[in-house]
What does this fold into?
Amino acid sequence: MAITPKKTPISEQDPKVRARNFKEVCLGYTAEEAMKEASRCLHCPTAPCMKGCPVSIKIPDFIAAIKEGDFQKSFDILSGSTALPAVCGRVCPQEKQCEGVCTVGRMVDKATGAHNEPVAIGKLERFAADWKAAQNDPKPAPVPYNGKGKVAVIGSGPSSLTVAGDLAKLGYKVTVFEALHLAGGVLMYGIPEFRLPKTIVQHEIENIKALGVDIEVNVIAGRTVTVEEIRKQFDAVYIATGAGTPKFAGTPGTNLNGVFSASEYLTRINLMHGYEFPVYDTPAKKSKHVAVVGGGNVAMDAARSALRLGAESVTVLYRRSVEELPARIEEYHHAVEEGVKFEFLTAPVEYLAYSGDDKNEMGKLVGVKCQRMELGEPDASGRRSPKPVPGSEFTIEVDTVIEAIGQSSNKVLLNAWPELKTNRRGYIEANEETGGATSIEGVYAGGDIVTGAATVILAMGAGKKAAQAIDEYLTKKAGK
Ligand code: FAD
Ligand code: SF4
It folds into this structure.
């Protein structure tokens, strides 16, 4: 049977409408559409897609179950490898992982000579997870205590949630400490509602809590609870405190009123519901003209959020070309459809201050001086390095700049725990081969606090390995 060259289309909110609301952009497959898309899978015996998945989801099997209409079986297969399928189906960079190596995507359509589109693995994963959530089944029951020990998990992002869920299923007593007032890490405070609805994250967290995991929010490990207290009360520790400290490029004028880090901007919107002011009392700035600096997922999220807050224009300044853009390609396309403008090969050189006589306007940002770039030789990252083009400066008028040029490690716990070895970049030294073992016995680490800012699935993959390592460590210690 001939394979349909294109993915089964999926419903999305109209770009003009969605650019002004925070509701989810993609509306998901119906059961019929999911079964149709599942029938494009060839069930390759070598399953290259599985090798492309950092947590080795049994992709051909879960897709086969959807094709048969057995959605419960499909969900069960997914659950064997991932605790957060509804999240992964929405935000994983599938085009670089499973879908990037899918056999269907490598085949050429005879009629057009063009490559087929790969099977929509991410959208199918999301379908199975959403179908399961809609069944309103009873929550999983806690597993009785195995008597082997108590584990403290610091941070509540995807890496921590994976460790906590896996260890609770093995019968450990698990307590998660989260500094913020809601659990979920970047899934709650970074990725906006229109890409990842918060009810979905909370649904997944409720399932983990139902397993008996105790999640204590508003607790800063290293401050509210000291390292000594944690060591005394717990037999093992997993640290996944993430990389949420904003970096600034140091562009002259960064201190002007109107220059934000993407971390602050997005946290105000997502976690503090800034877009629902005055229902929530943390307003987010209503801007007219916005420039976003950077080209990753964080930059796309900031740009699209600014549009939704009512900005008349949003321009992304990226110093390389579209080919090097690190953001998920789907998010870039969505941003373009919604009206975000892109200035490629462009970098800011100065943020410009108001220079008139009105004292109330002093210190306010009024524009960005930019410079065009050209690409030179590849740098250490393998990407061609941008070089300024002399005499190419130009100015754009903006009242808001959002810098999204990367984050560094969260330091509070690291500063309170000097015995914990870190590397030159300020991240925890943890051995991937031994499930994230650190320089301290019984203390493991994973996710962005080890790798630097990466992806949800890599953070989860580290959590899976760490759960196994912690289980082996505590089993040995308990002599069981
Ligand atoms: P985090 O999710 O960062 O969670 C760490 C948690 O630890 C935080 O809640 C923090 O408050 C808490 N914490 C820190 N210090 C302490 C302490 N001392 N005590 C208690 N708690 C503490 N990845 C993708 O795969 N796809 C995407 O589309 C994508 N988009 C992104 C968009 C944005 C805006 C951002 C910022 C990131 C995005 N990422 C994306 C990256 C991804 O979200 C991260 O790689 C992932 O969340 C890392 O998980 P983690 O568990 O290591 O840490
Ligand atoms: Fe199906 Fe693509 Fe995986 Fe082959 S590589 S089993 S076609 S999803």
